[in-house]
Amino acid sequence: MLLTLDVGNSQIHGGVFDGETLRVQFRKSTHPIGSSDEIGLFLRMVLRENSVDPAGVKHIALCSVVPPVAYPLRAACVKYFDCEPFVLQAGVKTGLKIKYRNPSEVGADRVANAIGATLRRPSENCLVVDCGTATTFDVVTGRGDYLGGAILPGLGISAEALSSRTARLPPVEIARPEGAVGRSTVESIQAGLYHGHVGAIHNLVSVLMIEAFNGTRPHVIGTGGFARMFESEGLFDEIVPELVLFGLRHAEFLNRNAGE
Questions:
Q1: Each residue of 24-42: pLDDT tens digit?
Q2: What ranges in the chain are assigned the alpha helix state H?
């Protein structure tokens, strides 16, 4: 079995593959990071609680946008799973042609999402919208060219900025509002965050479609923790919360086979 770990700024999203089947998914807060022992014990516990024998994990693949997590997580993999993890980073095989000016700048999670998109829609132009701590847009052609994309603050960051940088606006729960006309300060913030984000996603999809694909609509995939919130807005052709894990799985497969 293969354990996949996507280390984000807010959460670690994990999953266990048995062959091509994603058997288990789990999430935990990224912070506090914890020691290698704390991470290793958590991983073994969450697998057992989901009826997965940790001894059955023979390979581990991870991507991370949080550098301080790298060392304790690698140490946990070695100590508790007797496995040197595959890390998705610059220089490994991805099956993509990265067209960024500096390919090493592309976040590993964005690369994994792009790989996942090409697996779901081979030979088809794709746009991945990942609604997480940041909301990212990744453009991938049907030829496997990763062209780049856009990044904007996610819902959580936007809400935190309002409460921390203003004197009288309170923290709010991230939730879909009943309407655009808020009848209280909290409702007004929720309406602004939600509908503002809908507008931003809609506009960026439109301009990226024109710039990258001459106005032809690509297949738009929504992913990330907040994607389901926008399900009724018609922004995405499909929502695949675990897209990054499938991308990680394929990257690990490519590189393991290359070394054999």
A1: 999 999 988 899 999 999 9
A2: 36-49, 70-81, 108-120, 155-165, 185-213, 243-258
Class at the top of the CATH hierarchy for domain 97-247: alpha beta
Q: Can you list the residues of the chain whose pLDDT is less than 70? A: 259-260
Residues facing 64 on adjacent strands? 7
Q: How far apart are CA 94 and CA 88, in angstroms?
A: 8
The overall pTM is greater than 0.90: yes
Of the candidates 6, 18, 82, 109, the residue annotated as catalytic is 109
Which residues, at least 6 apart from 203, have a Cβ–Cβ distance to it below 8 Å? Answer: none
Domain at 2-87, CATH homologous superfamily: ATPase, nucleotide binding domain (3.30.420.40)
Q: pLDDT tens digits for 112-130?
A: 999 999 999 999 999 999 9
145 catalytic? Reply is no
